[in-house]
Write a structure and sequence with these properties.
The chain is mainly α. Helix 2 packs antiparallel against helix 6. The chain is globular, with a radius of gyration of 26 Å. The chain starts with a helix and ends with a helix.
């Protein structure tokens, strides 16, 4: 009897010690990390990058749907389509739809970022977007027939386009803020007045970027795009798609969520362009039928790491729904299963809660990090095909997302199941302790 009491006392003491350490961690997050997180979440540049890139997402998703239709890995389907429409039946996809959707991602990003950033300053945003697109084309290298490289409009020009859009929007805002504009009489229609308002910014921005183009033509890089792609985009993509870079990104997502701030949104505004560029590189290799895929892309994070939402909480929802004794936790788990299948988990993060909860923040950190490590090694060793760049939405139901994002690899579905089981094992002891606590409270009335 005394021995049992001693063991119980020891386990409770260890639990209290762990809770005290986590409470210290929570205080650190509240006092040191939360103010910084709040400033980042309201940063106009991060918001503009995030919202500007979102502009291209509908076209990316539609383009990806047609890629899936064209490349469906079913021999009987491919044979039927070839017999019906000819051997090159998928020309409409890679020859027409893809260049008009995913192939224009940088162009949409340039317009969207400049538009969004100028809007945060309270200025008329449409001229800023138009000027940014015009300035971007000035910097592009022209082919012998007067055209432009398709790669500069797609993934290769993404970083250069983002930087240019911010610069153009800042110049546009500065000129208007200083009232260096042509002001028309009040009886002039607003649309015409806005055109004259943008006249001076255009007269400054266009010649400025012509000068920038001329300067870079004197270098070995020839264009700004080549310079940024070589010096900035390629190294950042290599770091951001490495395992250490991915783990750091995931850790920051969890830290933001731990204090109630949308971590995926903040980290995504920084890492999203890197992961998106890697996805577009993979898509180009998928189209060519050769090349070595990058493992970490946006779909790697959305589809394989965050199964059930940030924190990989789908397995937690299942444990809560079917293995809990507490009526409150059981009900919350069943309520969370539906959204969790579509990777939405606010009902758990704020309802359980996980936010500011010393007991559950521990597995909330560990689970996605473990899933990231397992997924990275499974894909980097060739056991599972990495995401091929198809823009599968993050809300795609579990299992379907793994299959579609990898171009039809059934082993990707098994990998999602493995991650589900592993994250469940991480969550189980912690949610069991929390369940006992809640059950005891309910039993006491």
């Amino acid at each position: 009897m005394l021995k049992r009491l001693g063991k119980r006392f020891t386990s409770e003491s260890r639990l209290k010690g762990e809770i005290n350490r986590m409470q210290f961690f929570i205080r650190f997050l509240e006092e040191k990390f939360l103010p910084v997180a709040g400033k980042l979440s309201a940063n106009r540049y991060l918001m503009s990058l995030r919202d500007g890139l979102v502009l291209s997402m509908p076209l990316m998703i539609v383009g990806s749907v047609f890629i899936i239709i064209a490349e469906l890995p079913i021999p009987a389907y491919q044979t039927f389509m070839a017999a019906t429409f000819g051997a090159g039946w998928s020309w409409w996809n890679w020859g027409a739809i893809w260049p008009a959707t995913a192939g224009l991602v940088t162009l949409f990003a340039v317009f969207g970022i400049a538009y969004t950033l100028s809007k945060t300053y309270g200025k008329e945003p449409l001229p800023a977007g138009a000027l940014a697109v015009s300035a971007y084309f000035i910097l592009l290298h022209q082919t012998a027939d007067g055209g432009f490289s398709a790669g500069d409009l797609g993934a290769q020009g993404l970083f250069a386009g983002m930087i240019l859009a911010v610069v153009v929007a800042e110049i546009y805002n500065f000129i208007i803020e200083k009232k260096i504009v042509i002001t028309m009489p009040e009886n002039v229609p607003p649309s015409i007045a806005r055109s004259f308002t943008a006249l001076v910014p255009a007269a400054v921005i266009i010649p400025l970027f012509v000068i920038i183009r001329f300067i870079f033509m004197q270098t070995d890089y020839l264009t700004v795009n080549n310079f940024i792609f070589t010096v900035l985009q390629t190294p950042l993509t290599g770091i951001g798609t490495s395992l250490p870079g991915t783990l750091i990104s995931v850790m920051f997502v969890q830290m933001f969520w731990s204090v109630g701030i949308h971590g995926a949104s903040i980290v995504g505004s920084v890492m999203g362009p890197i992961w998106q560029a890697a996805a577009l590189d993979n898509l180009a290799m998928y189209q060519a039928g050769s090349g070595t895929y990058r493992v970490v892309t946006q779909q790697f994070i959305d589809i394989f790491i965050y199964v059930g939402g940030s924190g990989a909480t789908l397995s937690l929802a299942f444990i809560m729904a079917f293995l809990s004794k507490s009526k409150q936790i059981k009900y919350l788990g069943r309520l969370s299963l539906g959204p969790g299948l579509f990777n939405i988990n606010e009902t758990i993060t704020f309802g359980l809660p996980i936010v500011m909860n010393p007991m559950l923040i521990i597995p909330f950190f560990i689970a996605p990090l473990l899933a990231a490590i397992v997924t990275f090694f499974a894909m980097s060793t060739g056991l599972v095909t990495p995401p091929v760049g198809i823009a599968v939405p993050w809300t795609t139901p579990v299992l379907f997302g793994g299959y579609l994002s990898t171009g039809g690899d059934f082993k990707a579905v098994l990998l999602q199941v493995v991650n589900f089981v592993l994250t469940g094992l991480v969550y189980f002891p912690f949610i069991s302790t929390w369940d006992k606590k809640k059950f005891a409270e309910e039993s006491e009335g």
